[in-house]
Amino acid sequence: MSLANWVELVSLIVALVLLAPPVGAYLAKVYGGGKAPGDRIFGAIEGPIYRLCGIDPEGEQRWTTYAFSLLAFSLVSVLVLYAQLRLQGHLFLNPDHYKSVGPALSFNTAISFLTNTNWQNYGDGVIAQLTQMAGLAFHNFVSAASGAAVAVAFLRGLTRRKSHTLGNFWVDLVRTCIRVLLPLAFVGALVMVSQGTIDNFHASRTVTTLDGQAQVIPGGPVASQEAIKEGGQNGGGFFGANSTHPFENPNPITNWVQLLLILLIPFSFPFAFGKMAGDRKQGWVIFAAMFSLWLLASVLAMNFEARGSPPLTTAGANQAITKTQGGGNMEGVETRFGAGTCGLYAASTTSTSNGAVDCQHDSLTPLGGSVALVNMMLGEISPGGTGSGLYGMLIFALLAVFIAGLMVGRTPEYLGKKIQAQEMKLVVLYILFVPMVVLVLAAITAVTGHIVKTDVLNATPITRHGALAHASHGLTEIVYAFTSAANNNGSAFGGLSGNTPWFNVTLAISMFVGRFFLMIPALGIAGSLGRKQLTPATAGTFPTGTALFTGLIVGVVVIVVGLTFFPVVALGPVVEQLTGHVHP
Prior knowledge:
The protein has helices at residues 3-31, 39-53, 63-87, 103-114, 129-159, 169-194, 222-231, 252-277, 280-307, 310-314, 319-325, 339-351, 366-377, 388-408, 421-448, 471-486, 501-530, 547-579, and strands at residues 205-208, 214-217, 413-414, 417-418, 454-455, 460-461. It is mostly helical. The strands form three sheets. The protein has a two-stranded antiparallel ribbon. Strands 3-4 form a two-stranded antiparallel ribbon. Strands 5-6 form a two-stranded antiparallel sheet. A hairpin with a 2-residue loop joins strand 3 and strand 4 (417-418). The longest helix has 33 residues, at 547-579.
């Protein structure tokens, strides 16, 4: 790693440590009831919305009603987005006259943006400006806000006693959009525009370059979507190349700002948790668990990419790159950023549910790619998405106290609430749903050869195609796709052609399961805990506000994920690294 890489990482850490606690305190005031900063301004916006939609801002919901509201809103919004995609050729604000999107691709895209995944099978030259703004960008706000709403409901279940309600989904959704995401996106968009990110309603223009060649220059509302894409941990960019495109991410300044936007809200939620729980140590424990996993992944990925590919180094192919770009794995990497920055961005975007890229993940070194893959296999809890990272890590905390209780022979407790059979059944479901859908669909894909260029198990050619590579790297491309979809990340190994009927349907199923089959158990756990009375702490109570508990949480996460996914990781990136294979 170069000095510039270390400066970039350290400055990002300093910014997060300085900004996350006050942002977390603000979030606690937004969701905690009572007065909150900006009530006069934001209240004037929220009031008409509540009246128009018939929402009682003082009314609260049981967990079942809260979950039904979430599902009802999601159903209506996904149908509207699907209709926009299917009809966009007949709608206004389509200066490039893009055609309507086909049924399978519309289905995949609608589910993708509904679930905060933003998997982009459509590429460039497909989505009109109206659909970009009123469809995709709108869902960048509300999908992130839905995750935050579930997290807040989960916190209320943990911190309330003998309560049958968890708040109001509609109020939490509106307040998140108006008070959290819109201000962040507004500031982020201004910064992006100031650095050269485009933001207009122009159609594509054909210009003559300095060497006399014709080039098409696209236009569109890029900066405004870029800000919420990163701030809401969505990841779906205006262009198919995402943040590798200079119109989305012009220079190292915008790249650093994007990293901060990606990480800020997820790292702030633990401090909101500590504030709402009335015990800031609890928030620091969750933050420390998230931060340690992210930092380890970032340093590893940066080093793997900065060291480059061993076969290419042996062949002397990296020597010219070393002289011009500082060395490292420059395949698929923007020269504006370099290999080390590629590793940091890849680690950060897969530690969250963001999925944006400033380099091509399919070109990462085998070990660098494995860091990105394992980050998503963790469940994206380091720090995860907007709210989803927090309730995911808290569920692992419940599992950790349960294991600790078994070891000392006492009923496990967390924040004064007993963790019993009902909660643990839901915890197990939460942990198992994603591995089941990832491993089952990846296995069917690889073994039956539905969409792969080669049989990745035997390296023998077959007729149908989808994965570019063969053997271990082909398997990694497939597993990465389903892991990214089920964990609502959206990044991809570009060698895999996802715009096929098989992938459009199976990836959409993975996204749906990874989102709603986790949200509903999380709300069920919150409802169960909220009804319980607080149990006074005794000498035998396991303390959860300590560094020891941080280590226990991290250990539980690593063991559970390792036992689940190690075989497929060993067959994919580990084999590729050990064999020194350079994939095509």
